[in-house]
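Because showing beats explaining, we let one protein speak, sequence and backbone structure tokens together, and leave readers to judge.
___
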Amino acid sequence: MDALFAIGALAFAYSAEAASPGQQRVFGYAGPLSPIAAGFNIPNTAGETQLHMEVSTLLATNKYDELDKKMNGLQRAYENGSLSDLNLMHIFRVFYNINPILEEKYDKWVVLYPKSYAARMARGIYQLHLAMAARGTDVIGHVAGNQLTAMDAHLRQAWIDYKIAEGLTSKPIVTYYAMASAGQFEGLHKLEQAILTKANHIDGTNFIVRYKYMETLTTRWGGSLQQMVEFRNQVKNDGLPPEQVHLFDEAISDEVKWLAQHSKD
């Protein structure tokens, strides 16, 4: 297992960029961290919010059989084309809640259904958001060592579930989105590229992993405006619908405003 984690939480075999043990940590963004950049936070629909309430109730009342059937049914709906990747990812947002009482529930779900894609992803997503909370929002120089240690521990646990989940379905698009989100913490750009390639292989017109990758190209995450523009053009050439390409245009517009603001600092 250690071979998969060469630095902190995420030395993943996909990445030729992963540092060896003991090498200096390199973070994708060293500034103040918000959970999701405002321009990349597409709101849930009313239907998705209703599903969140239903899923939360099933989890809270320990109805694991119904919960597992519902969430894996939604995964199958995506696989057969009746649910978009964006809708699916939004529904899985229900597992962003980091209430500590939920840890035991996720563990129980996995114990009962160890080969459940949804159970593995739910627990992995929970661990990822615990990692975000552990890191906090300060600039990296103000983040205490014990916070980074806790972040790494949660990321390791998330990554284990993601790797298992990846093999439990033919189209693990939410897994690749979550992997990209986790990899973003460490600035593993080749890892991000490899995940994007895998996502495009299973779903040639996926939106969510492309959009996550676009976020990693922002200046604050070590990219540049030019890289964003080039990737936007690639997305258009890949055949994404105009309404989705427009969201990439909006991201570029937000980046121009951010650069103008920070050039005055």
Notes: The longest helix spans residues 145-166.
